[in-house]
């Protein structure tokens, strides 16, 4: 029986095998492609290079045009606003850098020459004290106009296309990520050890704001989307950034509240982005209602895809894991890319529960020949 993109994604996220494995490129801001890699790919394919407009300023991710998405048979679309309504970031030049302040009051900069990303360089919270935290000016929630524009886009895509729709309340990072963005990672991690009351107070406030913003978002948009995206990196390349005990004491209860709120407002699947060695946390994620793990960073410790599928494949879906974006995709040969893609499909596809995507965003400098080797091999082996 033929299925459309939306039905295909829903089936696989319910751990069933549809007609073929779903594909994502650009459905989220952690499964996309950077501006320069996008331009290089379009040139390689002989596609028109239109004015490239930036969707995600920090990561320099472009709006991906529909022609490319259809050429690659991508099943997922992101619910986002049109370019002109995304006016939060106002760049200014400072020496050799482009800079802007985010809604949380942090300063981000990117080199004007050969810059790839914006990095957080200055923070509004500069010492570990309740007094400083009490003085901090918390950001305003998304405006009604912004949410209205998102609703208009979601409604149009839902009613006029057959794509699976992924959305998020774009308010900031998760409970663990966002504190580091307002005080710096070193200060944040130090505060966990030295002043747990301070850091817990900060995370509680972020959780409350996130939930309030999400409620408003989902009340308007929840009925149109199939996937709700949340990012909360708690792991590094070789090990978690915090101990599992610390996660379970400080972060997990807050993650759970967010997930419960999302699932009370919509039937969407909950997508949890955690880079790195996330394997130790998967049982916790499953326990609190996470439906999807992304990006499945196969080059990190303990992230063997065959083992992950065997141990957890009945309880959680894997979104990503399609091709190692640290080593194979940028530095391998096209044949090595093909072998990598076939291995990951073999490890993850059986029984559904797998959305193929590169691991995180495809980066600047990745040869377009390798990008196409990934997508062409996937297309060849995606049928069940």
Characterise the protein shown here:
- This protein is α/β, with parallel strands linked by helices.
- It has a single domain (5-87, 126-381), classed as TIM Barrel.
- It has 14 helices and 13 strands.
- The protein has helices at 5-13, 35-45, 66-71, 130-135, 144-160, 177-183, 185-194, 196-221, 244-265, 282-287, 305-312, 328-331, 334-348, 368-381; strands spanning 54-56, 61-62, 76-78, 92-94, 97-101, 107-111, 119-122, 164-167, 227-231, 269-273, 292-294, 317-319, 354-355.
- Strands 3-8-9-10-11-12-13 form a 7-stranded parallel beta sheet.
- β6 and β7 form a beta hairpin.
- The longest helix is centred in the middle third of the chain and has 26 residues, at 196-221.
- It is globular.
Short synopsis of the structure:
By secondary structure, this protein is of the alpha/beta class. Helix content is 42%, strand content 12%.
The separation of the N and C termini measures 13 Å
* Backbone structural class: alpha/beta
Low-confidence stretches: none
- In the CATH scheme, the class would be Alpha Beta
**Helix content percent band:** 40-55%
Number of E-type strands: 13
CATH domain topology? TIM Barrel
One letter per element, helices H and strands E, the order comes to HHEEHEEEEEHHEHHHEHEHEHEHHEH
Radius of gyration: 20 Å
Share in β-strands = 5-15%
CATH architecture: Alpha-Beta Barrel
As laid out across the biggest beta sheet, the strand order is 3-8-9-10-11-12-13
| Average of per-residue pLDDT values | 95
